[in-house]
Amino acid sequence: MTTKTTAPVAKRVPTERTHHGDTFVDEYAWLAGKDDPETIAHLTAENAYTEARTAHLEKLREELFEETRRRTQETDLSVPTRKGGHWYYTRTVEGQQYGVHCRRAVRDGETVPPVSADGAPLDGEEVLLDGNLLAEGHDFFALGAFDVSPDGRWLAYSTDFAGDERFTLRIKDLSTGEVLADEVPDTFYGTAWSADATVLFYVTVDEAWRPDRVWRHTVGTPSGQDVVVHAEADERFWVGVELTRSERFVVIDIHSKVTSEVRVVPAANPTGEPAIVAPRRQGVEYAVEHHGHRFLILHNNGAEDFALAWTSADAPGDWVPLIDHSPGTRLEAVDAFENHLVVSLRTGGLTGLRVLPVGGGDPHDIDFPEPIYSVGLDANPEYRTTTVRMRYTSLVTPDSVYDYDLVTREMVLRRRKPVRPGPDGRAYDPADYEQHRDWALADDGTRVPISLVCRAGTPRDGSAPAVIYGYGSYEASMDPWFSVARLSLLDRGVIFAVAHIRGGGELGRRWYDEGKLLAKKNTFTDFVACARHLVKAGWTASDRLVARGASAGGLLMGAVANLAPDAFAGIVAQVPFVDALTSILDPSLPLTVTEWEEWGNPLDDPEVYAYMKGYTPYENVSAVDYPAILAVTSLNDTRVLYHEPAKWIARLREVAPRGDYLLKTEMGAGHGGPSGRYDAWREEAFINAWILDRLGRA
């Protein structure tokens, strides 16, 4: 690639946008022309410039990549999960980008998941799908559906080779290995089988990328004969489909951001008319889980942090309480097994699991030893079981798989993800690292939690460099997670912090409500408060602090760059939603209408327009000294379109030309970035090398 030492200058083509008496001139709107050769030329020039500006980090990038590779057991095998007469698992092979999906028959008397030495194939293995073979000849590959029929004969799977999350659905006969002629293009996530495995339900999207239709396909027939089971006309709502664990019902979930409706079809009568469990009521959210003669209903009707009830499965009607609302304890999900219910919840900023025996017995919460952690149920496809599979991790504990006996309360560690020795040859030891929970004070007096991890003995005198990560939207919680790549930062003396800001769900539904719509700015001021607190508490200094966020967290990055540019030495914004107002004003764009209940509708509401106008990053760039900014995006992203960061970087260079701004575009990927694991490791190495350079640790 030819290096480019001067920043590309995007041409300026003034385009006016007028709403509610306000006119905004957008000089870079032309970059939205994805098929325009000038757009591609500009993005290519930006990539060349970024490569030239970071060429001095090439050796460090390779070191970071090799450190991740060295610490990872590349040939590996997941803990097998039992479903019917088979154990299902995924293998990875050294040198291969994608997983190999397999199963092996359960042997007589076999109750413990089989294991293999060093991730080798299990004896008697049957390969269902090899992602590496499917990906041959493609720069990008992702699976959407992977759904084995109840009788174990059919596999429904879907593939995406562009990154735009438009999947082609296929069916494989696992008894012969043949892929059927049945093929459905442009499907979305979500499938469900009928009880006799003759019918497959799936989802498609409309022109605005909203999942709006559930279809019924009969195995062995052309897709042109498929039947629409539900078509959702209200553009605020999207649909999903799944089969209950009991395999008794196909569930059609219909959701907006604040309202739900669930319809069910008996799996034994797949051509039956979907029955409504409870009609939609504005502001009432509920989810359904089948359990014996009843449907369990997790809902927020008069229960801000949700309550659990049940209604008859034969004739849904009144909701009978099971768990009353308890403010501060957010009920997030319920999983039903024949003789037990397991409720996923969070309280005090931490996740938890509560077991409820059916027909008597005291409920109990499962205890965990660390002060900061994340726990949740894993795949548990068996309905008649007394053992559940769970996943556990923390900032210092690698991903761990446990089996928990619901009767004896015995917890067995099945596997902890291996972390191989690093560059110094030493085995990974969690005791070499410290994790902490700290609290910042927001402008309005709200206490905001921060999770931190660092090498043991890291000084608290402000001399340590740090990275602060944030998201703060959609009630998504940034619970503690372990990262092999992060060890390369920690071992170079960097502190890693997660700001659990409002707009997320860490402290319940109110925490989310106080960071959305006309309270959205709390998300941004909370993050700045967390950054200021890290400095005040001696964790780091503002000239040694880099902020990082992605997607809606990229909006956060753009907003805090405008709000407090002096608080950071650098900012990493991945697939950033930085032109929020322009996008939310355009109902033809993917996701816009469904997003109005998250951000507000600036098209019809002048107050919302003015509020968003006050924080949307692209329109609030000013002539100040910004920290260095690295924006990373993908050309085929359908969630946050590539032109948002492309326009943002161009505007930063125009309005605040003294800054150091880089744009890196993946020309063949989507919202999640590169799809292969080695490509993803290289992407992370690129970002971490840039971060270390900004922190003076390169």
Topology, element by element:
Blueprint: E1 15-19, E2 22-26, H1 37-53, H2 58-71, E3 76-77, E4 81-83, E5 86-92, E6 100-105, E7 126-130, H3 131-135, E8 142-148, E9 154-160, E10 167-173, E11 179-193, E12 199-205, E13 211-218, E14 227-231, E15 238-243, E16 249-255, E17 260-266, E18 275-278, E19 286-291, E20 294-299, E21 307-312, E22 320-323, E23 329-337, E24 340-347, E25 350-357, E26 364-365, E27 374-377, E28 387-393, E29 400-405, E30 411-416, E31 433-441, E32 447-455, E33 466-469, H4 484-490, E34 495-499, H5 509-513, H6 521-536, E35 545-550, H7 552-563, E36 570-574, H8 580-584, H9 592-599, H10 606-613, E37 628-634, H11 643-655, E38 661-666, H12 677-694
Parallel strand pairs: 33-34, 33-35, 35-36, 36-37, 37-38
Antiparallel strand pairs: 1-2, 3-5, 4-5, 5-6, 6-7, 8-9, 9-10, 10-11, 11-12, 12-13, 13-14, 15-16, 16-17, 17-18, 19-20, 20-21, 21-22, 23-24, 24-25, 25-26, 27-28, 28-29, 29-30, 31-32, 32-34
GO molecular function, one term: serine-type endopeptidase activity
Protein name: Oligopeptidase B. Serine peptidase. MEROPS family S09A
GO biological process, one term: proteolysis
Q: Helical proportion?
A: 10-25%
Q: Using the alpha-carbon principal axes, give the shape.
A: globular
Strand content: 25-35%
Q: Rounded to an integer, what's the Rg over CA atoms?
A: 25 Å
The major pleated sheet works out as:
8 strands, mixed
Low-confidence stretches: none
CATH architecture of the domain at 141-279: 7 Propeller
Mean pLDDT: 96
CATH topology of the domain at 141-279: Methylamine Dehydrogenase, Chain H
CATH superfamily of the domain at 141-279: Prolyl oligopeptidase, N-terminal domain
CATH top level assignment of the domain at 141-279: Mainly Beta
Distance between the termini: 24 Å
Structural class: alpha+beta
**Tally of helical runs:** 12
GO biological process, one term: proteolysis
Pfam families: Peptidase_S9, Peptidase_S9_N
Family: Belongs to the peptidase S9A family.
GO molecular function, one term: serine-type endopeptidase activity
